[in-house]
Amino acid sequence: MRANALSLCLLAATALPAMDRTTADTLVARATSAYTQGDHAGALVLFDSVYHHWRSAGLAYAIGNCHFKLDHVPEAIVYYERALLLEPGAEDVKANLELARQRTMDRVNELPTFRLGGSWDRWLGGRDVDQWSRRALWGWSLAFLIAALALLLRGTLRAAGISLAGVCAVFALLSVGLAVRRLRAVEHPAAAIVMQPRVDVRSEPRDGATTLFMLHSGTKVGLGAERSGWVEVTLANGNVGWMPTSALQAL
After folding, report:
1. Residue 229, class by beta-carbon neighbours within 10 Å (0-12 exposed, 13-18 middle, 19+ buried)?
2. Could you tell me which residues are beta bridge partners of residue 191?
3. Is the pLDDT of residue 14 over 60?
4. Distance CA 83, CA 94 (A)
5. Which of 82, 87, 153, 194 has its CA 20 to 30 A from that of 127?
6. Cα dihedral sign, 215-217-222-226
7. What are phi and psi of 107, to 5 degrees?
8. In whole angstroms, what is the distance from residue 54 CA to residue 21 CA?
9. What is the pLDDT of residues 197-218, one digit of tens each?
C-alpha cells in the first residue's frame, strides 16, 4: 500500500474558526512525518484533529491509510469513500479502497448498468468539489464579456456575439445546477459502511422480524427511510432490508 503522494491541500470552505490554516498545516506536516516513520497511531491522532475542522480528499485519504495500517478496515473504507466523494477521479484512493475491500467478507455484485454510466458519473462528479463552481464563474464571465463586446458591433457580428453569449450563459446555468448537485452529494451522502462484525438485515424495522440476509463490517450500503432506530438499506445488487442505525457509519 503506497503511503501517499496525494496533496494534503485543505478546503477552506469547510473550516471552523477553532483552528487556523497555519495550525492545520503544521499538524498535517507533523502527522505526515509520523506516518513516514511508522507511527501510524500518532499520525492518525494528528490527522484526525485537523479533520474535525477542515475537509479535503487528501486528508481523508491520509486518515484512511492510517486506519488501514492499524488494521481498522471498516474505518479505512469509510475515509476512502469520503475521499472519493470529494475527488471522484483520485486513482490512489480507488486503488487503496479496493485493497481494503479485499479484506472484507461480503462480496456484493453490482447490478448491470449502462456501460457509460461510470464515466458519466466521474464527469458529473469532477476532479474536486469546486470544479463546477469554477466553470459556472467562467461561464458567466465569458457571457458578460462577449455580450459587452457584441454591443460594440453591428449587424451579423452583433447577432453572432449575442448568440454566443447566450450559449455561455446556458452553460453557466447548467454548471450552477451541477455544482449544487455536487455539494449536496458531499454534504448529504445517501450511503454508509457497516461497522459491526455481523449484522442481520431484516424484513421489517424491528427485532424478531425475518432475517433476509447477513452483512459484515466494511460493506457499503445505500440509505433509505429511517424508523425508530432502524434504517432501510440497499445493496449494490438490489437487495433491500432493515438494520439498526447504530450498526452503520454514514459517509
Report:
1. exposed
2. 222
3. no
4. 9
5. 194
6. positive
7. -120, 100
8. 9
9. 999 999 999 999 999 999 999 9
Residue pair 23/52 in contact by the 8 Å Cβ criterion: no
| pLDDT above 90 as % of the chain | 53
* Burial bucket for residue 233 (CB in 10 Å: 0-12, 13-18, 19+): buried
| Bridge partners (DSSP) listed for residue 211 | 202
Q: 97 near 84, Cβ under 8 Å?
A: yes
How far CA 4 is from CA of 9, 19, 165, in Å, comes to 13, 24, 43
Give the type of residue at 162: I
**pLDDT tens digit sequence for 100-134:** 999 988 876 554 544 444 555 566 666 666 777 88
Q: How far is CA 137 from CA 129, 133, 146, in A?
A: 14, 6, 14
Our CA angle for 184, 144, 158, nearest 5°, is 135
Q: How far apart are CA 164 and CA 144, in angstroms?
A: 10
Angle (CA) 75 78 79, round 5°:
95
CA distance 214 to 241: 10
Look up residue 246 and give its three cell numbers. 447504530
Whether the pLDDT of residue 75 is over 50: the answer is yes
Reported residue count of the chain is: 251
Q: Any idea of the CA torsion for 216, 221, 226, 227, to the nearest 10 degrees?
A: -30
